[in-house]
Amino acid sequence: xxxxxxxxxxxxxxxxxxxxxxxxxxxxxxxxxxxxxxxxxxxxxxxxxxxxxxxxxxxxxxxxxxxxxxxxxxxxxxxxxxxxxxxxxxxxxxxxxxxxxxxxxxxxxxxxxxxxxxxxxxxxxxxxxxxxxxxxxxxxxxxxxxxxxxxxxxxxxxxxxxxxxxxxxxxxxxxxxxxxxxxxxxxxxxxxxxxxxxxxxxxxxxxxxxxxxxxxxxxxxxxxxxxxxxxxxxxxxxxxxxxxxxxxxxxxxxxxxx
Length: 258
Hints:
Layout: H1 2-19, H2 24-42, H3 47-86, E1 88-92, H4 100-107, E2 113-117, H5 122-128, H6 132-138, E3 140-146, H7 157-165, H8 171-189, E4 193-198, E5 204-209, E6 212-217, E7 229-232, H9 236-250, E8 255-256
Parallel strand pairs: 2-3, 3-4
Antiparallel strand pairs: 1-7, 2-5, 4-8, 5-6, 6-7
């Protein structure tokens, strides 16, 4: 009941915000005046006054109902336009294995660009390492991994993240090195598959496949696979996140993987 009341309250507040824009208040007040005039006429004795008053009240109420209906529809349209501008398509409760089919559907037809940003990308390696060679034949593939020894070996970002996730120290370092070991031959033989190491604490995970992008935050005490993930297409979210990726890729402190 409280949830329904809260939702209704938000809806009515949104409608009222729309009501206070432009000429909307004039129409709103006119309907109020009509209904009030009908109420006054009902207080006057006589069948004719009663009939007219009842009609005016009905007209005013109908006008108000139509008014709020139009406002609510305008609000929905505005939200839809905002979503379209952002490029947001879907939101998932988690990532990795739970939405693997979403990745596969897009990777199957990838033809231009695959960009990936993460810590050690352990789940990616486990799920898709057998497809890396195929990806590189069809696309330019760029992978950004955390430099395991940044900013220095004794106090690395990798170890800090291990602590945040409650993992054993050295877990992310090992994942990065295993990723590099398993892709060494491919990187040496195909220049379409490139890995760089960045030297900063990442805030988001990115998996871009052509014009689609999955991204999500890194949260305290939550493994990456259990954090929310958003799917976006063409729009300002995609553009902003690609700018972030490009800055990390070209940053003077990032370096080619050995």
